[in-house]
Amino acid sequence: MAREFDIAEIVSLPPGSSRSVEAGGQRLALVNVEGGFHVIDDVCPHRGGPLGAGFVKGCVVHCPLHGWGFDVTTGACDVRPDKPVRTYPVTIREGHVWVTLPDVSEARLPG
Ligand code: FES
């Protein structure tokens, strides 16, 4: 069953920035792309770098450890197509960002 979590105030994360958050015991990366909020897994599939602490360029967040890029709209990895991250549905409500976490079996992977 899907669960919804309040993970941030909209005003706390300006466009072009990201940060790591935790919801439901899960590490997530929250990213603001030109005012649109996106949530992906925080754990980089390369060696576990915190994607929420990465560098945002356009709709791609780059891992702070070795620079792999992940499209926050699809989860696709720019250097290793076989290593995507999950994306999660986001809702904006009453000035807050809410993320919906599905059961693990329902999580969306690109492709
Ligand atoms: S840990 Fe993310 S690119 Fe190496």
Briefly say what this structure is.
With 111 residues, this protein is mainly beta. Helix content is 0%, strand content 44%. Residues 44, 46-49, 63, 65-68 line the site of FE2/S2 (inorganic) cluster.
Features:
single chain, Rieske Iron-sulfur Protein, 10 strands, globular
Mean pLDDT over the residues: 94
3D shape: globular
Spans of at least 5 consecutive residues with low confidence: none
Content of β-strand: 35-45%
The count of strands amounts to 10
CATH architecture: 3-layer Sandwich
Please identify the top-level CATH class.
Answer: Mainly Beta
Q: What value does the Rg take, in angstroms?
A: 13 Å
At the fold tier of CATH, the topology name is Rieske Iron-sulfur Protein
Major pleated sheet: 4 strands, antiparallel
Strand order of the largest sheet: 2-3-4-8
Count of separate structural domains: 1
Bound molecule types: FE2/S2 (inorganic) cluster
CATH superfamily membership: Rieske [2Fe-2S] iron-sulphur domain
End-to-end Cα distance: 23 Å
User: Which H/E pattern describes the elements?
Assistant: EEEEEEEEEE
Broad structural category: mainly beta
**Alpha plus pi helix count:** 0
What is the share of helical residues?
Answer: under 10%
Helix and strand arrangement:
Layout: E1 3-9, E2 17-23, E3 26-33, E4 36-41, E5 55-57, E6 60-62, E7 69-71, E8 87-88, E9 90-93, E10 96-101
Antiparallel strand pairs: 1-10, 2-3, 3-4, 4-8, 5-6, 6-7, 9-10
The structure holds FE2/S2 (inorganic) cluster.
